[in-house]
Amino acid sequence: MLLTSGQISMTISSGIIFIFTSLLFLSGYVLQQQTVRSLQAAIHPPPPPVPSASPSAIALARPFGHPPGSNGYVSYQKLLGGLAPDIDWKKAAYVQLVTAHMTVCNAVMIFAELAAQKSRAQRVLLYPKMWDQNIEHDRSSALELERSMRLIRVAAVRYGVVLAPIERMMDVGEGNMEAAFPLSGLLSLTRFDHVVYLRPSGLIIDSSILDTLFSMPTNASFTSFSDSSSGLPPLTLIIPSKAAFYAAMATLRGDLSSESSYLRSNTHFLTLPSTPAPIVSRTSYLHNVSEEFESDIFLSQAGYVQLLDEDIKGPEYNIPRDVFLQSRPQPGEARTAWEELYEMYRTRRMDVCGLDLEPMPAVYGPEVDVVDRVET
Question: Judging by DSSP bridges, how do beta strands 280-282 and 304-306 pair with one another?
Answer without folding.
Answer: parallel
